Amino acid sequence: MEHKNLVKILSLAAVLISILACSSLPVLKFGPSESADSQTPAEIPYCDENPAVLCIVSFGANSQNRMVINFYKPDLSVPDFYVTVRHRETASVYECRTVEDIPTNIYCGGERIPLEDTIDIEVYSINDDTLIAKGTFVITAYALATAPIVAVIATNLTTSPVVTPSPPNQTTTSTPVITRTNTPKVTSTPFTRTPTRTPTRTPTTNSYPNP
Amino acid sequence: MQIFDIWAALLQDKEAVIFALAWIGWGSIMLFSILRSIWGNGLGFLESISLAIGGSVLPIFLAVIPIFALGAFLGLHITPVVLLALMFFTAGAALRATRQTQDEAKRVPELSLLIGGILLLSVSLRLPFVTNILFPSYFDSAEHYRIISILIQDYENASRTANFISPVASYYHLGYHLITAVMTAIAGVNLERMMLVFGQIILAFAPFPLFFIVRRETRSDLAGFFAVLLGVFGWYMPAHAANWGKYPALLGLLTVQFALGILYLVNEQKEKTLKFRAAFVLAVLSICVSLLIHTRSIILIGIAIVSWKLVEKWEWLSKAVRSLFGGLVLTSLIAEIAYLERTDIFTPLLDPYLHEGIWVTGAVVVLSILAWSKHKHIVFTCLLFMLFVLSSLFIPVSANTFFTLLDRPMIEMVLFIPLSMLGGTGFAMLNELPFLRFKWLKIIAAILVSGFVVFHAFARYSFYPSDCCVLIGNDDLLALDWMDERLPHNARILISSSEIRISPSGQSPQNTGADAGIWIAPLIDRPTVSLPYPSDFRQVDVLNHLCEQKITHIYVDSTNQSFNLEFLSARPDWYKNLLYLPDAQVYQVNGCRQ
């Protein structure tokens, strides 16, 4: 059976693997903009819901009382843009910046929006002021305990009513644990560290975890 | 797996895919030509290809050194078009010079198509991994990125500054870094994308050299292909190693398997002919390159040689002593496995093989029993190899018993090699089972066993990045860019760290970054200082320590080994929040007296 059937058996195996690979083939789900009228601006989803189109990763804030909107742009043909945020019949322009060397990640900063307000976000091309995409979100909020700033969460009205960002999953300890520190400057050798205090084992999980 | 992600990866990273494939393809063709010119008909077409894929790293490495030297020291930089043209013409010339018999020439197009199809399929299965990830996973990747970045700077900046920066204080897998640096610089792609794509392409090619020894031992092409199939689909290793950023070790898998294949050929030569000398030179070269790609490769090669030679001696013993020694090895292996399973820190080691992959391992055990009657040498060598590899976990190589001959992640990665060989060798015995009298029964048995392995893989394993090890997300990227723009260059940033726990004895002399903060130094060039992630920032001791270290900022994100936000927000007078995103925060340390 060696050489005669080798090609047949392996071809059959290849077909089987291809069928399995395609078995979870999603129903053709190109972005909504594919089939829509090219003049109609696309709807902006959260990236958790649809990372295949221009989407919002998160909302944040900085200490200068500015709101930060984090966008993800998988399609690099989407032109550079700025953002207009409308609320209570006023509009503010948010300037945007592309993360250095990572053209898919853009963030925009502008006026802080009061909590619980509904905002309309419109994304315009810098080149010709064409409206590229838009979406409506509600800014809800929770305050970090005794924190000086308030974290901002938004809800996309056009998609799902509640979007809760994943909370930091931390392990708490009650006693100060300063086990080891690194050398003062580690820019060139971030793995080189020297112990400066009494070493104590930290309660860690195994390194290099399995899936 | 979603089929569209293969296309998405090809569209998103087409330059990196083309260049990585071109390099590996070129290296394979060059070595194929060398092997054929030395051995001629002594090596089968498929044997030569499988061995050449493993050894492809040799010509690549030998080409990369002068290219890098020309760029770094003379400012002569090769363009992508010139490189691809050079590859095309040299590979073409090498193929034209390759000897073929008439009989073989008839089968070459058919077999080339077959191998090409299988390789394409293997690459296609691995590519979706890169679509859902921004940067290579885990903390190893950040260090690889940093070293390669410096090498790229050295390569590109020579004509302007002529200042060569040494990327590492001591040797650290420099072979992998050099190859990736040259590949990235010539292709003109982002380093993180090349690391991801090249890693997946190495992974796609890594199981192919398994064909060689199994084919050579059993004289069965199907047995060789089954060993490859086990390497690709049998267990979630070595694929999961990409989630650990173990790219040098993955590349080392290719060179190790090539070295073992060539050593097998050296062993076959009874007389010191030209073939022997050529094989010997190739073996030495492959061992040197393996050492440069990944230091511990040489330990694996050494263990394989010792195992092989011991089995040769064992075969000369009387039957009673052979049985005694064989029983002793088997008992030791079982005892070792039982001990590892009961030792908390080693439990993950056998997870791919005894928990997630128990059915495939079980099938391999059955096939090994079948193989024992006819292929004792290879079966016993594999058992001995596994025994020694697992034992090497307990052999310290320095005063600190943390450092052992091989470590847990490395062993977890390589156990698929002996297991796949055992499975492949046993598969050959399906042809000789007395109850499979008819040819069609044998074919059905072969399809059933192979189908089971493939089906098991698609049902159990993910072809996407594991959540366990992704440290950097979209919010982290924003925060890093924001810090790069807003924070002064002398800002000293505190990042979270955790202890490296892979050994039951001794203690790692270094902690390692535990969240996206590990990427601050390589990406935005700010000095970082680390502190264990459970540190309680409400305590004055911790604040004093930060002040002593002149820490100006603290980076926190949402990975489960980052700092606790509640501790920081509990002392707004000491720590001021500068940037808040759901998955990344930057704090300023305000509590130190001026």
Short synopsis of the structure:
Chain A has 211 residues and is mainly β. Chain A has 2 helices and 9 strands.
Task: Describe the overall structure.
The complex is a heterodimer of chains A (211) and B (594). By secondary structure, chain A is mainly beta. Chain A has a domain at 32-156: Immunoglobulin-like. Chain A is 12% helix and 32% strand. Chain A is built from two helices and nine strands. Chain A has helices at residues 2-23, 32-35; strands at residues 42-43, 55-62, 66-72, 81-87, 90-98, 105-111, 118-125, 131-143, 150-156. In chain A, strands 1, 2, 3, 4, 5, 6, 7, 8 and 9 form a nine-stranded mixed sheet that branches. The radius of gyration of chain A is 25 Å and the shape is extended. Mean pLDDT of chain A is 66; it is low at 23-37, 142-151 and 158-203. Chain B is mainly α. Chain B folds into two domains: 4-460, no CATH class; 474-589, no CATH class. Chain B is 63% helix and 6% strand. Chain B has 25 helices and six strands. Chain B has helices spanning 4-12, 14-39, 45-55, 57-74, 80-96, 102-126, 138-157, 174-187, 191-205, 210-218, 221-234, 247-268, 274-293, 297-315, 319-342, 351-355, 358-372, 376-391, 408-414, 416-428, 439-460, 474-486, 520-524, 540-548, 565-569, and strands at 493-499, 511-513, 528-532, 553-557, 575-581, 584-589. In chain B, strands 1, 2, 3, 4, 5 and 6 form a six-stranded mixed sheet that branches. In chain B, strand 5 and strand 6 (584-589) form a beta hairpin. The mean pLDDT of chain B is 91. The interface between A and B is large, with 90 and 119 residues.
Please supply descriptive tags for the structure shown above.
heterodimer; A: mainly beta; Immunoglobulin-like; nine-stranded mixed sheet; 9 strands; 12% helix; B: 594 residues; mainly alpha; six-stranded mixed sheet; 6 strands; 63% helix; 6% strand; globular
